[in-house]
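Consider the following input, taken from an annotated entry for Energy-coupling factor ABC transporter ATP-binding protein (Candidatus Enterococcus avicola).
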Amino acid sequence: MIELKNVSFSYADSSVATLENLSVTIPTGSFVAIVGDNGAGKSTFCKLLNGIIPTFIDGELSGEIRVQGVKVREKKPVVLAKTVGYVYQDFENQLLRPKVLDDASFSLLNMGEEAYEELTMTILEALDLDHLADEYVWQLSGGQKHLLALAGVLVLSPEVLVLDEPIAQLDPYHAKKIYEQLAVLHRQGKTIIVIEHNTAFIGEYCDHVLFMKERNIRWFLPVKEALQRVEELTAGGIFPPQVTLLGHELVKRGLQPAGTLPITIHEALPYLHPLEARISRREKEVAQAEVPPLRQAVLNFQEVNLEYKKINDRPHPVITQLNLTIHRGDRVAIIGNNGAGKSSLLKMTVGLLKPKRGEIRLKEQLIHRLKAEEISNVIGYVYQNPEGMFIEDSIEKDIAFSMRARGIKDYQTRTEMLLTQFDLLALRHRDGRLLSGGQMRRASLAIGVALSPQILLLDEPTASLDMATRKRITSTLQALSESIETVMIATHDMQLVAEWATRIIVMNEGVILADGPREVIFQDTHLLERAGIVVPEIVQLSQQLSGVISYSVEEFVHQVEQGGRI
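Applying the prediction step yields:
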């Protein structure tokens, strides 16, 4: 059991409390999702449970915290680690050893466990990392590193497992694999606590929801009851599952009677059965890719190969025989499983990685012949890990940095505009490295567009964002299309892909499997399965019920309305 009584906490550098008078009891064996908007105090709450706060993070803490009957403040984190396993939001800080097997088994070795290798390999196999056991950590993709951090915690078999955004950088296949593994641990009696923005996974796997807002706990409820509170959740920056939002909207419009809303696709199918005959059914047609009008090519990749050498001097292919042309006006989503080569493709585009063979041209000019300054005048690039974007001691200075360096006269005016546009005014004097994950993401986007690039590259732009902020980012991307000609995004966020992209590139093991509009890509089930892609709930639901794809809740409701009211 986890008990917090009248707990408050303020960081040493802040005059405002991050948590105020928290009290909650979480029963042993619960599977709890902590939700709330960015900056609500979710990560701070979790760091109290294993003594990271206040042992390693200074601040003023009051109240009582007990985990499994033990007073947390009376035990050192090294002792608590056997009871409470924790996977950080900034998970790369947990990776300590050069090789995968060494890193995952690090804690077992420190405790003198003789069967460390066998125990560790069992965990690596469960997380689909066993084939990488002898690889070096720096060779892994961001998602694979996230899985490795989880492996390093699971080997200790803690009674309580806390994960801060466990699927933030994972492809849909591995995200589901993570939750299936957590479900197994839950059935074994473990207490699982996740900070999660993806409410579809919450509805499918969790049994309770803890809702945080304005530095406090608003409520702690069973998942079915919690996700019914659609208006309260959306007001707090949390969007329930698409199927729940759909049910709520149908009730509001008189298309369904009031009652319990579905929280999973499995529940949504019988819920919508009475409407099935009324759902607008148009003749199913095989989607054909429209031939786009002739537009200027802004990026061109010809026979590009990228590889790196392992320590044993053997080459490891990352991208193979890539041929690709990006046109002015494209809104491109690059999707695929972890390690597919998405981030590497973006890094080659800005010259951070150099291909082994082939040519990359930026508006007819070879990338490798251009200076970094010349490239950055045209292309803006936002990293997968946003903390790498911060070099000054405040967000305001970071946004202004590149403009000041280029001698842009009105940089102060533009800095103010970007602070407003990305909802950063209240954070302008904060060090970017000390912000929450979602706040870091917004700030890094503002830095990325500061020079008004013609082409913008974004690596996982919605990772770690609550759904309200994700929607705001999507709207911002739409607005930026007026000034930024071309946008390329590497992402696992299929809802963003469905609602925003005009072109989808599917990658797998360094090869482009498909390149086309969403109407073609989302209907190719064999392709999606091969690439480990899971389409959004509303797309799945509309396919099963009518065969005509809806890409948003609004589109689905419109389809129902075309069939008439009950």
